């Protein structure tokens, strides 16, 4: 508070200003109304008495005793367990809230809204009973204590492929690109390399998979990243002569990452079973001062660990495609082994939805013949190959020998 005559600051309101001596009685009457307004406001928000006393002292510089606070609230006719509002007033307020986002409120939240927004005095148990009467469906949905999930639908293998990139190892220079079949959950490719942002690299992965399987999917789903543009063009080109409903440009579908659920959910499985180990290993190298995140260190780490990580990913894909998946209540796809679901759809009452593609069609795309430098930098790759040959160093076969090779080459190159 400040004196309106001399501007002196004081923590408590007095009858006279200790600096200029002017009377401040007129401020005292106005301050009493403000104190009462703040006390009632904090009381309606549900704060306890001792918290209100502490708030008045800390936030407003007003020292008030607990007894004085209770007396002021009593004189204002404010009680916690008296003077309850009529049932009709409470029902009308609840109906008004149920017309909007309030239909999602539980009885505790609704009770708080009635107190603070509508200044109604009502028991929390009464709000619970009224909500059961006025919004039975909402109470039933909240009683399940789970989200209502949409059902995933797929007609068969190669009906839709889900493709995406995995960036958890990108701070260490390793980028992963993957694709999964929506019906069988078979992982079609899982490639580790220097980048997953280059459209040519992603298109090459798609063309290599199509060449290996001899089919292209009925639909391809990706997120809106620019790295997927060339792959989308290849898919639409290979499907432009077909006459089905999803032929041509309709054979590719952009969507948000959260909607690309098949591959996004599989990334969490990959992290729990595989990538968490590599993240912790590379983090240990960084914390020990052996990895700074520079371009040179990333190229060196890719050179030493790239093949080892790719070997581990291939093993992960092999194990996943041969394990048994339990039947899900939120998907129309049957449970079973991904390889069996993909190659033997007739055993599960389905059919192959893919379209055969000839090698001559794939030869028209130069991306399939391109090779990516595993190191990511041709100059550093040439230097490291020379060092490996000159020092007669062996390629690593596991993460331990890869770590030893990384430290050795780092000392030799003085990075």
Commentary on this structure:
This protein is an alpha/beta fold and 415 residues long. The protein folds into 3 domains: 1-81, no CATH class; 87-143; 160-413, Nucleotidyltransferase, domain 5 (2-Layer Sandwich). 48% of the residues lie in helices and 8% in strands. It contains 15 helices and 7 strands. The chain has helices at 25-44, 49-60, 66-75, 87-98, 107-116, 124-134, 136-143, 199-213, 229-238, 261-287, 295-321, 338-343, 359-362, 378-390, 399-413, and strands at residues 160-166, 175-181, 187-193, 215-216, 219-222, 252-254, 355-356. The strands form 2 sheets. The chain has a 5-stranded mixed beta sheet with strand order 3-2-1-5-6, with helices on both faces. Helix 1 (25-44) packs across helix 2, helix 4 crosses helix 6 and helix 5 (107-116) crosses helix 6.
Helix percent reads: 40-55%
**Spans of 5+ residues with little confidence (pLDDT < 50)?**
none
Give me the number of helical elements.
15
Mean pLDDT: 85
Extended strand count: 7
Order of secondary-structure elements: HHHHHHHEEEHEEHEHHHEHHH
CATH superfamily of the largest domain: Ribonuclease H-like superfamily/Ribonuclease H
Shape: flat
**CATH class value of the largest domain:** Alpha Beta
- Write down the CATH topology of the largest domain: Nucleotidyltransferase, domain 5
State which percent range the strand residues make up: 5-15%
Distance between the termini: 63 Å
Major β-sheet, in short? 5 strands, mixed
């Amino acid at each position: 508070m400040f004196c309106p005559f001399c501007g002196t600051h004081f923590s408590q309101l007095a009858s006279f200003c200790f600096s200029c001596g002017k009377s401040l009685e007129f401020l005292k009457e106005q301050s009493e109304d403000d104190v009462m307004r703040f006390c009632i406001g904090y009381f309606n928000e549900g704060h306890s008495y001792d918290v209100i006393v502490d708030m008045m002292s800390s936030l407003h510089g007003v020292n008030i005793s607990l007894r004085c606070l209770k007396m002021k609230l009593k004189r204002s006719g404010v009680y916690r367990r008296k003077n309850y509002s009529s049932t009709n007033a409470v029902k009308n307020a609840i109906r008004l809230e149920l017309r909007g986002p309030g239909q999602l409120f539980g009885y505790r939240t609704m009770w708080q809204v009635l107190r603070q927004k509508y200044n109604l005095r009502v028991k929390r148990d009464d709000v619970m009973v009224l909500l059961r009467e006025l919004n039975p469906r909402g109470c039933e949905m909240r009683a399940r204590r789970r989200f209502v999930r949409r059902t995933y639908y797929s007609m068969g293998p190669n009906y839709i492929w889900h493709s995406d990139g995995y960036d958890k190892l990108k701070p260490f220079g390793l980028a992963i690109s993957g694709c999964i079949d929506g019906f069988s959950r078979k992982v079609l490719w899982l490639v580790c390399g220097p980048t997953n942002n280059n459209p040519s690299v992603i298109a090459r992965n798609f063309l290599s998979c199509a060449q290996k399987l001899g089919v292209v999917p009925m639909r391809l789903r990706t997120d809106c990243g620019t790295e997927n543009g060339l792959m989308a063009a290849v898919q639409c080109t290979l499907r432009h002569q077909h006459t089905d409903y999803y032929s041509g440009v309709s054979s590719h579908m952009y969507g948000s990452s959260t909607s690309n659920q098949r591959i996004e959910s599989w990334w969490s499985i990959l992290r729990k079973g595989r990538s968490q180990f590599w993240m912790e290993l590379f983090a240990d190298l960084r914390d020990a001062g052996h990895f700074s995140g520079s371009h040179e260190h990333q190229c060196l780490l890719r050179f030493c660990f790239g093949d080892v990580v790719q070997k581990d990913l291939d093993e992960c894909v092999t194990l996943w495609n041969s394990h048994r998946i339990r039947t899900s209540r939120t998907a129309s796809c049957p449970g079973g082994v991904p390889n069996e679901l993909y190659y033997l759809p007739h055993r599960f009452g389905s059919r192959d939805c893919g379209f055969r593609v000839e090698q001559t069609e794939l030869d028209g795309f130069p991306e399939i013949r391109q090779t990516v430098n595993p190191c990511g930098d041709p100059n550093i790759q040439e230097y490291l190959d020379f060092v490996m040959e000159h020092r007669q160093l062996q390629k690593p076969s596991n993460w331990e020998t890869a770590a030893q090779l990384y430290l050795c080459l780092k000392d030799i190159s003085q990075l």
